[in-house]
């Protein structure tokens, strides 16, 4: 059995470690300050090393450490993942680029042309991370007022149209959100490998759409029994469409030589806990965010209160933005938990750690070789440039 392991590319800047979660010193999040990395001020002048150079270093580090590709997230605070992928693709001949995007902000014909162009240029290394949006202020930042369930209906139409025009045959479509007449990709672009679809969302509407469209249903990490129930629901919806999706989980990791050393990293970061910031980040109509918020106790006496099962800690969002759940432990313990998730039905992982560059090496060199039941796969290029 083989499993794909992706690494997260820190598009929003990066901080030195979870021990210093408020110290962003890589990228532009903290401005150009002395001591920053990529770009930095040295001798009173910018050093000429851009943040795209730093992301390229993360690509090369994670590829050399055994990861098949990287996730490029998309938030109001990040650079655009489509443009960034175009810039990074030439840094490797095999690395896959998983572009996160909300379908409502692109017309499916334009998305098809952009995607097919990237597939042609990279030898088929584009992967989709479809996100339909979590509502609230972040959604309004994009100018999107479409309600929760309708966003997933819009996503389904988007993917119907995108697939419909992909092979270059004239395609007609008359839906609630999109309409085409005789639309098709030009012959130069038609017939490229269609990107694998990683589909996120925890609501009934999301699970229904994922059952129709996903190659991989992607979830944040949750307690393992809850993940099992969620996966069973996706399987049931997929079966109605004659589909059998695979499953993927996005996980932050703190792995060290010993369990004590890993928890010591968390303890140091705990001094910077910001419960109010985590509550603000969980606003909106995202069912997944609401589920995770419900697992975080209102009254916490210490960071170990948030260990919901061995090595599964739900306090990451209190230290830095992003998912609440992650894995904390020794290299052997983290490998064992990943093996348990594989037994549960997980076919692919998107792993992350701070800082992204150094932790890519650490996880790739110390954790992945310990996996007992999985063989990380390396990507095969589908065509040559």
Structure, described:
Residues 43-347 form the Luciferase-like domain. It comes from Nocardia jinanensis. InterPro entries: Luciferase-like_dom, Luciferase-like_sf, SsuD_RutA_monooxygenase. Keywords: Flavoprotein, FMN, Monooxygenase, Oxidoreductase. By secondary structure, the chain is α/β, with parallel strands linked by helices. It has a single domain, classed as Luciferase-like domain (TIM Barrel), CATH 3.20.20. Helices cover 38% and strands 20% of the residues. The protein has helices spanning 51-64, 81-88, 108-122, 136-141, 148-166, 204-213, 224-240, 259-270, 275-281, 287-295, 316-319, 331-344, 356-366, and strands at 2-8, 14-15, 24-26, 41-42, 45-46, 69-72, 96-101, 126-130, 171-174, 179-183, 196-200, 216-220, 246-256, 307-309, 312-313, 326-330, 348-352, 375-376. The strands form four sheets. The protein has an eight-stranded parallel barrel, surrounded by eight helices. Strands 2-3 form a two-stranded antiparallel sheet. A two-stranded antiparallel sheet has the order 4-5. Helix 1 (51-64) packs parallel to helix 13 (356-366). The radius of gyration is 21 Å and the shape is globular. The relative contact order is 0.16.
List keywords for this structure.
8-stranded parallel beta barrel; oxidoreductase; Luciferase-like_dom; globular; 385 residues; alpha/beta; Alkanesulfonate monooxygenase; SsuD_RutA_monooxygenase; 13 helices; disordered C terminus; TIM Barrel; FMN
């Amino acid at each position: 059995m083989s499993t794909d392991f992706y690494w997260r590319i820190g598009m929003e800047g990066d901080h030195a470690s979870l021990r210093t979660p408020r110290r962003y010193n890589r990228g532009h999040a903290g401005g150009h300050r002395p001591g920053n990395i990529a770009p930095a001020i040295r001798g009173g002048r910018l050093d000429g090393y851009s943040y795209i150079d730093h992301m390229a270093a993360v690509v090369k580090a994670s590829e050399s450490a055994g990861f098949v590709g990287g996730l490029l997230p998309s938030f109001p605070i990040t650079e655009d993942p489509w443009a960034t992928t175009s810039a990074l693709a030439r840094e490797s001949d095999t690395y896959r680029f998983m572009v996160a995007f909300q379908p409502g902000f692109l017309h499916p014909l334009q998305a098809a042309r952009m995607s097919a162009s990237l597939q042609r240029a990279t030898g088929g290394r584009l992967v989709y991370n479809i996100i339909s949006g979590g509502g609230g202020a972040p959604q309004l930042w994009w100018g999107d007022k479409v309600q929760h369930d309708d966003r997933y209906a819009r996503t389904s139409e988007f993917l119907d149209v995108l697939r419909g025009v992909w092979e270059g045959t004239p395609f007609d479509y008359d839906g609630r959100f999109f309409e085409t007449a005789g639309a098709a990709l030009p012959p130069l672009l038609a017939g490229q490998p269609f990107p694998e679809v990683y589909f996120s969302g925890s609501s009934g509407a999301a699970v229904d759409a994922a059952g129709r469209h996903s190659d991989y249903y992607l979830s944040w990490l949750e307690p393992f029994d809850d993940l099992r129930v969620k996966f069973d629901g996706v399987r049931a919806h997929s079966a109605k469409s004659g589909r059998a999706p695979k499953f993927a989980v996005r996980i932050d990791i703190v792995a060290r030589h010993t369990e004590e050393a890993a928890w010591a990293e968390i303890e140091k970061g705990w001094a910077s806990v910001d419960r109010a910031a985590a509550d603000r980040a969980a606003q909106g109509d995202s069912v997944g965010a609401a589920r995770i918020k419900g697992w975080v106790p209102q009254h916490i006496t210490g960071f170990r209160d948030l260990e919901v099962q061995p090595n599964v800690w739900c306090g990451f969002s209190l230290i830095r933005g992003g998912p609440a759940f992650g894995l904390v432990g020794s290299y052997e313990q983290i490998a064992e938990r990943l093996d348990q998730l594989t037994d549960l039905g997980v076919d692919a992982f998107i792993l992350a750690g701070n800082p992204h560059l150094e932790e890519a090496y650490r996880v790739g060199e110390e954790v992945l070789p310990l996996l007992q039941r999985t063989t990380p796969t390396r990507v095969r290029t589908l065509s040559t440039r």
